[in-house]
Write a structure and sequence with these properties.
The protein is α/β, with parallel strands linked by helices and 215 residues long. Helices cover 31% and strands 21% of the residues.
């Protein structure tokens, strides 16, 4: 069985088409203005419309309020909300209940201790994501998409009762090693398939997805 891949931070029709044609199982659209991958609602709606049913359409948010979620979900058929900020388990559960949508929570990891944070979300969300925690002295660090990896060995012996994704610093070149070490069955990539922050490279998207399908 191939590894399921999410291409995140899509900003152009060309990139969406490459993700769809290449076999992405998830597509990600960012609603966080400080990110170079952030989309306006109308722009995102046009891109989401190019993703056929059967491919999970994920909206990526950082500590969103209900008004933002309402405005986005009223304009496009998202299948999942990804929470990439400091949201609590109760907030995640409230979003699930109010909007009737699946929720994925990103856990930022630098050490074994950080993995403990995942436990509080086990009864509240549908998916977990493990992403690299940026160091405190990193200039202009974003909540995600910083091209940083963490020690994949931290996940090797872990068994979670929810499906989960590996994220952080993945590229077509290191994907096989990351999956072998972490035992991830789903992966998320953003900066690793870009020409520059916010600009996806369709050739890199195709290469990443081909590697994922071959694993």
């Amino acid at each position: 069985m191939s590894v399921a891949a999410k291409i995140c931070g899509l900003t152009t029709e060309e990139a969406v088409q490459a993700a769809v044609a290449g076999g992405a199982r998830f597509t990600g659209f960012v609603f966080y203005p400080p990110s170079p991958r952030s989309l306006r609602i109308a722009q995102a709606a046009a891109l989401v419309a190019g993703v056929p049913p059967g491919i999970t359409r994920v909206g990526v948010f950082v500590d969103p309020d209900d008004t933002l979620l309402e405005n986005v979900l009223a304009k496009m058929p998202l299948d999942m909300v990804q929470l990439h900020g400091s949201e609590t388990a109760s907030r995640a559960e409230a979003i699930k209940r109010r909007f009737g949508i699946k929720v994925m929570k990103a856990i930022k990891v630098a050490s074994e201790l950080d993995l403990q944070a995942a436990k509080e979300f086990l009864g509240s969300v549908d998916w977990l994501m493990f992403d690299a925690k940026p160091p405190k002295d990193m200039a202009n660090a974003l909540p995600g998409g910083n091209a940083l990896a963490f020690d994949w060995e931290l996940l090797r012996q872990k068994n979670w009762p929810l499906p989960w994704m590996l994220s952080g610093g993945l590229t077509p070149e290191n994907l096989a090693q990351a999956v072998t070490i972490s035992r991830a069955q789903a992966v998320d990539v953003s900066s690793g398939v870009e020409r520059k922050p916010g600009e996806k490279d369709p050739a890199k998207i195709r290469a990443f997805l081909a590697r994922a399908q071959a694993l």
